[in-house]
Amino acid sequence: MRVFAQQLVRPAQYVALAGYILFLGFPLLWLVSASVKSSAELNSLVVNLLPQEWHWANYSEALARQGLVSSAGNSAMVALASTALVILIALPASYVLARLKGTIRVAGVGWILVSQVFPVILVILPLFLILRTIGLTDSLVGLTLVHTTYTMPFALWMLQGYVAAIPVDLEEAGAMDGGNRLVVLRRIVFPLLAPGVVATAMFSFVSSWNEFFFALVLLQSPENYTLPITLSTFIGGEGKVALGPLAAGSVLAAIPSIVFFSIMQKKLTGGLMAGAVKG
Amino acid sequence: MPSLLPILVLSVAPLLMGVLLAFTDAELVRSPDYQFVGVDNFTRLMGSSFFWDSFRIGMTWAVSVTLLQLVAALGLAQLLNSGLRLQALTRVLALIPWAMPPVVVAIMWKMIYSPNAGPLNAFLGSLGLPDDINWLADFSTALPAVIVVGVWVGMPQTTVTLLAGLQQIPDELHEAAAIDGAGAWRRFTAVTLPSLRPIVTSITSLNFIWNFNSFSLVYVLTEGGPGGRTMLPMLFTYLEAFKNRNIGYAAAMGVVLVVVVVALLAVYLRSQLRDDRFETKKKGGLS
Questions:
Q1: Is the CA virtual torsion A260, A265, A271, A276 positive or negative?
Q2: Which residue of B has its CA nearest to A230?
Q3: Are B75 and A16 in contact (CB under 8 A)?
Q4: I need a labelling partner for A257 at 20 to 30 A (CA). Which of A104, A116, A227, B107 fits?
Q5: Between residues A215 and B175, which one has the greater pLDDT?
Q6: DSSP assignment of B172-197, as one string?
Q7: Are residues A197 and A213 in the same domain?
Q8: Which residue from A minimizes the CA distance to B238?
Q9: What secondary structure does DSSP assign to A179-231, as a single string?
């Protein structure tokens, strides 16, 4: 009986695995398939996974569509600028945070955690009022500042984890060898920190690239739209959507973050949980 | 120390301002002129059935998505940890949903759920089941349908995290339990679950926060409809602030949501910690 049950385990596991693969993979496959179907086929009642004819024109149509390329440019600008700001501000702050002891460190780390619980509405309301007084609501500069504010706590969290992993002994040894503070930072700390900085920068780039809510609140004029906003306007109106180009545009929009996550998968999880257990 | 200053200005100050707004009658008008009104917004909130309806929907959404995520991810992590084929494929698949922009995910699932040309209804039709369900627009199916999408998005990250935890459990523990005659299920409840406990606690807490605060996915999928059936609290506060233009009132809603989430987490984390202590004591007593 027992042996019989054990023989059944493997096939059952494969059935379950197939179920997961179907659930996770099918929607993706469908999106890609829709991106190469003609609109006639997409609107017909005959539903097939494989297109009857491969309609690559969707991709060129998506790229030619007004707004898609220029809003991708907007997204890239905002993402690059806010990433640069985040790193510039978070790098020194995280170093201080990781090396300090006592109340300031506790307060700092506590703040990072609390800010994760804050709903986006409480973040955007004050920022919106501030940006409006200086006339930056419908502007990419304003959006960059908001993304910077929003990504900062998690970037700090990531970076201070990487700093904490560098043994203080190394710095002390550098100081003993006659290096002053700046030399020690430049020669010892920064090289060791480089992978962490790259990871944090990629994280903040992708958060900004994918971000929807703040852009929705702030941006009014279509020439300022970021990619997620432009994509969402395509499905707004009733029915009259060119699904094929929309699917093609969606596939293209997903590429940067998919590349990032495939590189970062292990590190992100490790870092997240290391922090959680320590905290 | 001065390097911490930008953090105070950019991160701490705005959030505190947001909390302060909750005690004012601020509105979204050209010339902002507002005063402190004490707890007026909060007393008004207590009587607002729309807000509490939305709150209830938010809890249903966040609890269902978090629990389903955990169960589904635990199953998948176990499978990925048991030396099956197709591992590489599954790992890639378990990564992509996590990486995709929420707007793209929503667009994709709208196509899946599409009443006429969608694959889901076509599949049901081929089985002889009703094939004309308008998943996202029907009062009874809209919330479950968006919950499924929420699970799809969040499950991968939970899986990767739990898998890392599973791989840390020493094989000897399982072997020892097997020698003692424990079956697969017994080994799961007596060895796997207790070892995973700290990781499960932290990932469910994080998932709950993220899910409760989520906006984009459901906004693009349903805009809170039909008839408010998927009106998550973040959608509700967004509409209150930027459509009804009541900023102070919306901030008060935000504050209430923070307080409730923090209180729930505190209760949950506390019970987990207490159980941990109990477990350690038990173990100590046995040895």
A1: positive
A2: B103
A3: yes
A4: A116
A5: A215
A6: HHHHHHHHTT--HHHHIIIIIHHHHH
A7: yes
A8: A121
A9: --HHHHIIIIIHHHHHHHHHHHHHHHHHHHHH--HHHHHH--SGGG--HHHHH
Q: Let me know if residue A201 belongs to a domain.
A: yes
Asked if the Cβ–Cβ distance from B234 to A45 is below 8 Å, we say: no
Instruction: Give per-residue pLDDT as tens, B24-55.
Output: 888 887 666 778 888 888 888 888 888 899 99
Q: Residue B280: what pLDDT?
A: 56
CA–CA dist B231, B226 (Å, integer): 9
pTM for this prediction: 0.85
pLDDT of residue B284: 46
Residue B36 has what DSSP assignment? Answer: B
Instruction: Give B282 to chain A, closest Cα distance, Å.
Output: 22
Residues of chain A in contact with residue B104, where contact means CB-CB under 8 angstroms, are 31, 228, 231, 250, 253-254
Domain end call among A39, A58, A77: A58
A90-108 burial, b at 16+ Cβ within 10 Å, e below that, comes to bbebbbbbbebeeeeeeeb
Question: Which residues 19-58 of B have a C-beta within 8 angstroms of A?
Answer: 19, 21, 26, 32
- Residue B281's pLDDT band (cuts 50, 70, 90): low
| ipTM at complex level | 0.84
Q: A86 to chain B: which residues are within 8 Å by CB? A: none
Q: Is B101 on the interface with A (CB under 8 A)?
A: yes
Could you give the CA distance from residue A237 to residue A248 in angstroms, rounded to a whole number? 18
Q: Does B235 reach chain A within 8 Å, measured CB to CB?
A: no
CB contact under 8 A, B258 and A153: no
Within 8 A of A257 by CB-CB distance, chain B residues are: 99-101
The CATH homologous superfamily for domain B39-279 is MetI-like (1.10.3720.10)
With a CB cutoff of 8 Å and minimum separation 6, the contacts of A1 are none
Determine the structural domain holding residue A24 and report its residue range. 2-58
